[in-house]
Design brief:
- By secondary structure, this protein is α/β, with parallel strands linked by helices.
- The protein contains nine helices and seven strands.
- The protein has a single domain, classed as Vaccinia Virus protein VP39 (Rossmann fold, 3-Layer(aba) Sandwich), CATH 3.40.50.
- Strand 1, helix 3 and strand 2 form a beta-alpha-beta unit.
- Helix 1 crosses helix 4 and helix 6 crosses helix 9.
- The protein is globular and about 60 Å long.
- The mean pLDDT is 91.
């Protein structure tokens, strides 16, 4: 099933790379949460892979933490990979759907808000499990089904009112049960998936759209309506956002549901 236009995802990330630092607050927040989880694992990871590295936020956040001795970075976007490479870690431009790594290469695969753009997530998880050494750790955060519910509802209401129908304007996301089943299907041992929320507030909803574009998270659904959003539809959506979700201080919430996946490559005697 092809849900996302991967070439468009790459284009969005290439375009965002130069100004990414002005919009990377969510990536850095989630990278810090992943680093905290890694600190709780009492073992060393001689060779780790940062899958979907953006411009190097995981490497910057870890800064030698987490028991990682050598980190390899890769990203779908050559422009982002080039910016990540300045931190001195080996870096490649790699499509997460076609991993070029030999079996049992890594002790750890970590991924921060990248895999929700993958079409064949079951296949990618299988490739990740194969790339891990026995008893290697997979730790990843993706955006979940509760992400941008406010924006999603406002756009849907506006498009129905102005255009008489709806099209995918916010990407579809998985939930906890889906991801847990996929980890088991991919052959991971001791799979765990949990959800948390990061809520950001905005005085102007247009700033949210600017941040999404600046993060390289603009809509890349294959079935999205082509062409620019009608001005009347956009104005209706902004009005619906304001009237439906504004807090007492007038600021507008934007919710990002962060799903964290943990799994281990099977090994003898594993507990």
């Amino acid at each position: 099933m092809k849900v996302f236009d991967r070439s468009l995802v790459r284009k969005h990330r290439d375009r965002a790379a130069a100004g990414f630092a002005a919009h990377d607050f969510l990536i850095r927040e989630v990278a810090e949460r992943l680093a905290d989880r890694l600190d709780d694992v009492t073992r060393r990871f001689p060779l780790a892979l940062d899958l979907g590295c953006h411009t190097g936020e995981i490497a910057a956040t870890l800064g030698g933490r987490g028991g990682i001795e050598q980190l390899v970075q890769c990203d779908l976007s050559p422009a982002m990979a080039a910016r990540a490479a300045v931190n001195g870690h080996p870096t490649l431009a790699v499509d997460e759907e076609w991993l070029p790594f030999a079996p049992a290469s890594f002790d750890l695969v970590i991924s921060c808000l990248s895999l929700h753009w993958v079409n064949d997530l079951p296949g990618t998880l299988v490739q990740i499990r194969r790339a891990l050494k026995p008893d290697g750790l997979f730790l990843a955060a993706v955006l979940g089904a509760g992400t941008l519910v406010e924006l999603r509802q406002s756009l849907m209401d506006a498009e129905l009112a102005e255009e008489g129908g709806v099209s995918p304007r916010v990407s579809p996301f998985a939930d906890v049960r889906d991801l847990g089943a996929l980890l088991q299907r991919a052959g991971f041992a001791l799979p765990v998936v949990d959800a948390d929320a990061v809520t950001v507030t905005y005085g102007d909803p247009l700033r949210l759209l600017t941040d999404l574009r600046g993060m390289g998270e603009a809509n890349a659904c294959v079935e999205q309506r082509r062409g620019l959003t009608r001005r009347a539809t956009l104005m209706q959506a902004l009005q619906a956002y304001q009237s439906g979700f504004a807090g007492g201080d007038g600021r507008l919430p934007a919710t990002f549901q962060v799903m964290t996946m943990t799994g281990w490559a099977p090994a003898a005697g594993q507990t």
